[in-house]
UniProtKB/TrEMBL annotation:
This is Pyrroline-5-carboxylate reductase. The lineage of its organism: Eukaryota, Metazoa, Chordata, Craniata, Vertebrata. One of its GO terms (cellular component) is cytoplasm. Homodecamer; composed of 5 homodimers. It is found in: Cytoplasm. Keywords: Amino-acid biosynthesis, Cytoplasm, NADP, Oxidoreductase, Proline biosynthesis. Pathway: Amino-acid biosynthesis; L-proline biosynthesis; L-proline from L-glutamate 5-semialdehyde: step 1/1. The gene is PYCR3. GO terms for molecular function: pyrroline-5-carboxylate reductase activity. Belongs to the pyrroline-5-carboxylate reductase family.
Length: 287
């Protein structure tokens, strides 16, 4: 079938299609203020496509509408009008969507999935032979352009497709190409990991409330504490154990507090959480 060419897309980045769920909007929101303003007109939604801006998911219409994108309920229309198509449904919905769009996918298309657990091999098997497929995993802070994203490419996606995807996702924050096996680990570490950090932040603030501080102030200070700690890790390149030791005055407050965390099993609990998230991502891909 004829349709927009990938080369044309690179020159005129219209027809970028994105799903409108929370995962997809993670990417939308990040693209909106991104330094590549030419992309804003081409973002579309999962259920809806985007050709020069079209979106199809009801819940996302208001948000995506602000980007000047069109919306649609037809996945087929998305594929027929877009070269670069993002898949961002729940894992159990994806097989039906792939079955629906497969007859419309051409060698010009590039399909990009952020669906947890679903492997490149599975995607390739459900699409026509030779389809260019890539996979990535974002996390919630993509919304504020401080995300952590990893991606991997399928057998038929080359340097060019990888470079375009990386160029788009770099607007979300850190973005690295990795072996595909790392994507499920990244899901346990970072895609889900932000939720562990929020739980920790909540507990920090609640501890301060218990000791008499107001809740809103405690929350703001907890958030700034996490932000500062993370910034120091990134900017100094130091191992967190070294930074932690730097805070501990012999016989002081920190070592007494850390002893409580060790007794509570924080370290093992967090390691177990990353392991559980990773294993669950692998399971989702098999269902
Ligand atoms: N939440 C997160 O932080 C992250 C999520 N992910 C992955 O993103 C994916 C989606 O998760 P999330 O965004 O949280 O879920 P949501 O439920 O928020 O979004 C799913 C989207 O898929 C749409 N949809 C449902 N059925 C179809 C269909 N047949 N055709 C096209 N679109 C359809 C839904 O539209 P409607 O609302 O109209 O039904 C909705 O917009 C999952 O695979 C998850 O693993 C990846 C990284 C992070
Ligand atoms: O919980 C989930 O399954 C998705 C994947 C990573 C974040 N949310």
């Amino acid at each position: 079938m004829s349709g927009p060419r990938w080369d044309t897309h690179l020159e005129q980045p219209h027809g970028l299609q994105l799903p409108g769920g929370r995962g997809g909007q993670r990417v939308h929101r990040r693209l909106r203020p991104a330094p590549e303003p030419q992309l804003a007109g081409g973002v579309a939604d999962g259920a809806g496509p985007v050709a020069d801006g079209a979106v199809g998911v009801p819940g996302a219409r208001v948000h995506v509408g602000r980007l000047g994108c069109r919306t649609t309920h037809s996945n087929g229309e998305v594929v027929q009008s877009c070269i670069l198509v993002f898949l961002a449904t729940k894992p159990h919905v994806l097989p039906g969507v792939l079955q629906e769009i497969a007859p419309l996918v051409t060698p010009n298309h590039v399909l990009v999935s952020l669906v947890a657990g679903v492997t490149l091999q599975t995607l390739e098997q459900m699409l026509p032979p030779g389809t260019k497929v890539l996979r990535f995993m974002p996390n919630l802070p993509c919304v504020v352009q401080a995300g952590a994203v990893v991606f991997a490419r399928g057998r038929c996606a080359g340097e060019r497709e990888a470079a375009v995807l990386q160029g788009l996702l770099a607007a979300c924050g850190l973005c690295e190409e990795v072996p595909e096996s790392y994507i499920d680990i990244h899901t346990g570490l970072s895609g889900s990991g932000v939720a562990y950090v929020y739980m920790f932040a909540e507990a920090l603030a609640e501890g301060a409330v218990k000791m008499g501080m107001s809740g809103p102030l405690a929350s703001r200070i907890a958030a700034q504490t996490l932000l500062g700690a993370a910034k120091m890790m990134l900017e100094t390149g130091e191992h967190p154990a070294k930074l932690r030791a730097d805070v501990c005055t012999p016989g002081g407050t920190t070592i007494h507090a850390l002893h409580e965390l060790e007794k509570g099993g924080l370290r093992a609990a967090v390691m177990n959480a990353v392991e559980a998230g990773t294993i669950r991502a692998r399971e989702l891909g098999k269902n």
